[in-house]
């Protein structure tokens, strides 16, 4: 790994007088740069409360992690990015931050080349932030993403246009999102019952769906499955269909089913689902399921990098790809994925993990400017507390399940420095440094075993 000659030693910052784990890398004050060159990068790990949401690899821990990336140009314009907060990912971000100092924010090829070079052979292991549900490939794209988003934000601010304008212009003024339903415990073990309460049965899922639809107006629903036996999850979908006759419905067990089980579920739900998401692990298994069902198969697990596309096409593994700018290399490269999808005749939807407002703004601009997005996008937004974010409130609010595309320059959201400091403090105090749904589940249920496929 070569060190960027522009960098001076990274500075660890303090937070309210306490040593923090924030990092500021900057070019020495005496060195003059072109006005659109990157002068400094600040990386702040944060933690926010997350309810005990169940999935096929375990359960969400009480705090979810993110990293907030601030890129500042020589002329003082600041761009925002948001990404995973796992410690190995943070280490890579720090290496990449060094590499991007001095890069022109309009030179997107150079930006990508610098990040790719910085992660090549870095020897850092793990840290993809998704608790085993997405492969660890495309490291360069995962690390590039927050820098790409931050530079889009800066370019928008410099040119006085919203990010969607830089991505080709809005083809929709509002972006529909789906209500993302989870089986969940009433509260974290040892804690009190949370505002959502328990959802472990079809009735519980329907009650959760009713509340999420009434609050946000979502017009499509997705159930995170792979938690209970497939017949119980089929029953939950049928109960949702009864309560919401017109909502498109999806189920996603994150590869928890064998091919045989997937086909049984597909048959039971063939007249009910909009699409079936990652029923079984791997491209070959998905292709086998697809050969025997007419239900469209979607993925955010077996096609998660450009290098997977050729094999997916050769095998005929999928119908729909869920894009996600956090692992597809940011906004620019997600548009490249959209081009592949259009050419290959794949549908395009959007994946989500637990996230904050910078990511929601980026997802909204991207979906608004991507004609091929034909489905309501996923978001974990309702699962985060309203009073916990790093952006100033008011920029993003759901109306009838959709978000109006921000029209202010760049991403159209402002960082709230006090909130950032608060969530960083929470990160320092919380002690969690990796997302570990399985480990948390095993601490609660000592007999819990990770299996894939499970049924
Ligand atoms: O947060 O539990 C979760 C989800 O299961 C998430 O990790 C998945 O990546 O939402 C995702 C998906 O659609 O597979
Ligand atoms: Mg999924």
What does this structure look like?
The protein has 455 residues and is an alpha/beta fold. It is 34% helix and 18% strand. The chain is built from 13 helices and 17 strands. Strands 9-10-11-12-13-14-15 form a 7-stranded parallel beta sheet, covered by helices on one side. Strands 1-2-3-6-7 form a 5-stranded antiparallel beta sheet. A 3-stranded antiparallel beta sheet has the order 8-17-16, covered by helices on one side. Helix 6 links the parallel strand 10 and strand 11. Helix 1 crosses helix 2, helix 2 runs antiparallel to helix 3 and helix 5 crosses helix 6. The longest helix is centred in the N-terminal third of the chain and has 21 residues. It is globular, with a radius of gyration of 21 Å. The site of D-glucarate has 13 residues, from loops.
Strand content: 15-25%
* Low-pLDDT residue spans: none
Number of E-state strands: 17
How far from one another are the termini?
A: 44 Å
State the major sheet: 7 strands, parallel
Mean pLDDT: 94
Tell me briefly what this model is.
The chain has 455 residues and is α/β, with parallel strands linked by helices.
What descriptive keywords fit this protein?
five-stranded antiparallel beta sheet, binds magnesium ion, 34% helix, 17 strands, single chain, 455 residues, binds D-glucarate, seven-stranded parallel beta sheet, alpha/beta
Fold topology:
Elements: E1 11-15, E2 18-26, E3 38-49, E4 54-55, E5 58-59, E6 63-73, E7 78-84, H1 87-100, H2 108-119, H3 139-159, H4 163-166, E8 174-176, E9 179-182, H5 202-216, E10 221-224, H6 230-243, E11 249-252, H7 259-268, E12 273-277, H8 283-291, E13 297-299, H9 309-315, E14 320-323, H10 331-344, E15 347-350, H11 357-368, E16 398-399, E17 402-404, H12 417-430, H13 437-444
Parallel strand pairs: 9-10, 10-11, 11-12, 12-13, 13-14, 14-15
Antiparallel strand pairs: 1-2, 2-3, 3-6, 4-5, 6-7, 8-17, 16-17
Helix pairs in contact: 1-2, 2-3, 5-6, 7-8
The structure holds D-glucarate (GKR) and magnesium ion.
Magnesium ion is lined by residues 252, 277-278, 300, 351.
